[in-house]
Each structure stands twice: as structure tokens, then as C-alpha cells.
Specification:
Helix content is 19%, strand content 43%. The strands form 2 sheets. The protein has a 4-stranded mixed beta sheet with strand order 1-4-3-2. The chain has 2 helices and 8 strands; from the N terminus they run βαββββαβββ. The model has no long low-confidence stretch (mean pLDDT 96). The relative contact order is 0.23. By secondary structure, the chain is α/β, with parallel strands linked by helices.
């Protein structure tokens, strides 16, 4: 079975969310279906998007799994964002970022030995 994902994050203001997620993800959106939605392609068949939906904004939770999470968090820091929390579960680490609406995006993966 092939696996893909199209994960949505509700935000109050799409324009400001695009600015924040561009800093988090290191690039602008891959495409914009309309003014109230922006989509980033993370890998083949794996997407994350923000959608303007003030009633649901702030309740999103997602984790982006990467090969070298510590290096990714360092790259994000250069773009001006810092994690608000860090978790470790055995050999897996997770750094938690919160957008201005309070949505949580984790950057995680296996830690180097």
C-alpha cells in the first residue's frame, strides 16, 4: 500500500501564517489553491497546508519526521524560530514549535548515537 498525507493546520490569517511557516519550513508554499490556503510539499505524496479557519485555529498538532532533527532545528533557528519545548523518548527527539495561533508543529526523528 502506498502512503501519502495531506495534513491541514487551521489558522486565523493565511497571509501571516504563510510568513511563519515559510520560516519554519525554509521555503515558500509549493502552491496556493486559493487566497485562504497554502500548501508545502515536504516529499513525494507528503504535504502540509495552512487553511484560514478562525473557528478552528490553534488546535492543530503535527510532527514532521526528518533524518537529522538536530540539524533541522539548527537551520530553523537561523531563520529566527526557536522551539518552545523539547522531548526525548529513547533514541527519538522532538522539538516543539508553536505558530502565532498556538498550533503545534514538531520536528522529530532518531537522534545520532
Amino acid at each position: 500500500m502506498a502512503v501519502g498525507i495531506f495534513a491541514g493546520i487551521p489558522v486565523r490569517d493565511c497571509k501571516s501564517a504563510v510568513e511563519w511557516y515559510t520560516r519554519l519550513l525554509g521555503a515558500g508554499p509549493s502552491f496556493r489553491p486559493h487566497e485562504a490556503e497554502a500548501v508545502w510539499r515536504l516529499a513525494e505524496d507528503r504535504y502540509v497546508y495552512v487553511v484560514e479557519d478562525a473557528a478552528r485555529a490553534g488546535g492543530g498538532v503535527c510532527l514532521i519526521w526528518v533524518d537529522d532533527p538536530e540539524a533541522e532545528v539548527d537551520r530553523i533557528a537561523v531563520r529566527g524560530l526557536r522551539p518552545v519545548d523539547r522531548e526525548q523518548h529513547g533514541d527519538v527527539g522532538k522539538w516543539v514549535f508553536r505558530d502565532p495561533d498556538g498550533n503545534e508543529t514538531g520536528i522529530g526523528g532518531e537522534l545520532a548515537p
